[in-house]
Amino acid sequence: MKPGDIKAHLKKQHERRQQILEKRRNSKFAKKMAPYYKIMNRFSLPLQALWACIINFIIEALSRHSAIAAWQYMTGTPLVFLYNAGMIFVTLLIAYLVRRRVFTRLIISALWLFLGVVNGVMLAKRVTPFNAQDLKTFTEGLSLFTNYFSVAELVMMGIGVPALLIWLVAMWRRAGQYEGKMHRIPMLIIVVAAFFGYSVLTNVAVDKRIISTYFGNIAFAYQDYGLPYCFSASLFNTGISEPNDYNKDTIEKITDNGEMTESTSDNGVRPNVLFVQLESFFDPIEYEDLQMSEDPIPNLRKMFENYSSGYFKVPSVGAGTANTEFEVLTGMNLRYFGPGEYPYKTKLKNQVCESAATAFSAFGYGTHAIHNNGGNFYSRAKVFNNIGFDSFTSKEFMNILQTTENGWSKDDILLTHIKDALDSTEQEDFVFTVSVQGHGNYPTEKVIENPKITVTGAPTEEKNNAWEYYVNQVYEMDQFAGNLVKMMEERGEPTVIVFYGDHLPTMGLEAKDMKNRYLYNTNYVIWDNLGLQKEDRNIPSYQIMADVMDRLGLHSGTVFNYHQQRRQTKDYLKDLELLQYDILYGDQYVYNGKPPITEGHMQMGIKEVTLTDLVENLDETYSLYGTNFTKWSKVYINDEKQESTFLNNTRIELPDSKLKDGDIITVSQVGSSNTIFRTSSEYIYMDGKILEYTDEVKEQLKKEKEQKNSVKTDGDQQKTENAGQSGEQQDQNNKEEKSGQQ
């Protein structure tokens, strides 16, 4: 195509576009809207400011599930409301950079309203509001949709989102364009200046305590500071900002020239150390209004009375399991991170870091993590590998037969896998277990027909039903704790078990509802069979690991050593922030070039899947037999995933597979997003049977093939020789025949 042709085509396309625009300008709809567009253009800034306030009000009404609550928020904290409306107003200024101003405003408005709708829906299903970290685990969260949403709700979402997109396309076609002169460069400068000015205003608002950069509870923060600010903060404000006095000399002073990185022991005691994080656990009698037919935690109550215990200060309320977990395992204080941040989803997802696992490994411990939920949730499979665990057993490696009425795995399944972890090594073990049975949302209708414990005292019948459900889950969690202690007593090995709750349950609790008048306290107890002295005290989650190690005479891990040595000293928290920054975001001066962990080595699961037999059924389907199958076991033939049906831990059905000699069969444990966590050894299908495809088998099959080829070659050669001999004999016979005729 010639340049002239291209130029002519573009000109024709431009003319066609102008005709379309002219037709739209002269349409009945355009003429009808022209006076309104004129007014809107003349008073666009004040109208845009009003529209920003309306959007903000709608967002808060959706988030609070109440227009009245939104009105109270607006009138009760007008500066916060106007600050958030101002943020929306600034984003709407982008419309002045394009001609399709109405459509651009609609798009920006739709995005803000979409945040409000999603947040409102999420808060109706869980206590944690929608934040930027949810976007990073979107595919992982999809696996839990059925736990939170009914089929009807999922269908409505499937219809609503496409409908919104269709409406936006229609508005793009119908909305008018600004016909005045465009001043894009001056407007771009104004828009950039507006965004910069708003960042300055944000700092002023923080200084004046209108808003805060620390979210002790993200749900409360959204209520206090509004969705626009909180979501934006979770999106842009992550990690630990560099402290003013951060340098090598400061870090060397804090760590005694690196001595805190060393591992030492006061004695030869090496017990098994088990940490058990109980989902949403706290002592229900701490809620003053609740009356129960019997004590729901008899086993833990007995431990409270006889072993070290107290309140356990956690970084969140109603949600935030992974953040309590983070503080316990690393000894780091979450307060120094971005508001609403989950380090599991940000820094630790892609970076190695020392932890309790590396600290115990320094003394030769085996280190194991166990959780009866998905291995990908909160990126645990990646995080546990990055912080030094030897193994991680997630639900994909468990045959979960008992679930709660809400569909969460019951905790009793954990006993088997804790035992497997302990049995997998000859030395002592550190086992970190995270339970899930107590997880909300708690049903407001009566779902347990014959509850072990009945509950009264809640303000409404719906709340009473929720509390009764929760208390009965706590009772079973207590039974699990008692059974774990019994199991360890029967093993007869020196052991310490730390039980604690990760946060209060999602019950809308207020400080006035609690006996201790504090929402960030759960309960903990340290059981042991070593005869440790009972020391009751309240302790924050980031200190518990250092405290337990200190009682055992173990000093390992930079941050844990820091807590043991500096907990009661001046500038303790200030220097802790410096230390955390250096380890995670700084130059790691503390290690002097020798970090305790440089890469992960973790394996998923303790027991490997093995295959023992494959039987062809009368209907030409196959039954695969083996060990350690779960419903997350998927069969692959020649690396192609097969349709399969899990029957039990020893049998999987293959309804559509076709096999031939030489096919390679494997079984993988597959998590969400089709993540393959672990794959069995290879097995080869031969003569209707399967055989582990070891190097010896490969060599044997190679020899058999060579022998067959050799026999075939010899046979072919013999046939050739015979054929040659036959030809020679025929020639001789012909000669003799001719001679006789003559």
From TrEMBL:
Highest taxon of the lineage: Bacteria
Biased composition (Polar residues): 720-732
Recorded topology in the membrane: Multi-pass membrane protein
Composition-biased stretches (Basic and acidic residues): 700-719, 733-742
Membrane-spanning segments: 39-59, 79-98, 110-128, 148-172, 184-201
Record key words, sorted: Cell membrane, Membrane, Transmembrane, Transmembrane helix
Domain Sulfatase N-terminal span(s) in chain numbering: 271-553
Annotated region described as Disordered, given as residue ranges: 700-742
Protein name, entry field: LTA synthase family protein
Organism in which the protein naturally occurs: Coprococcus comes
Lineage, opening ranks: Bacteria, Bacillati, Bacillota, Clostridia, Lachnospirales
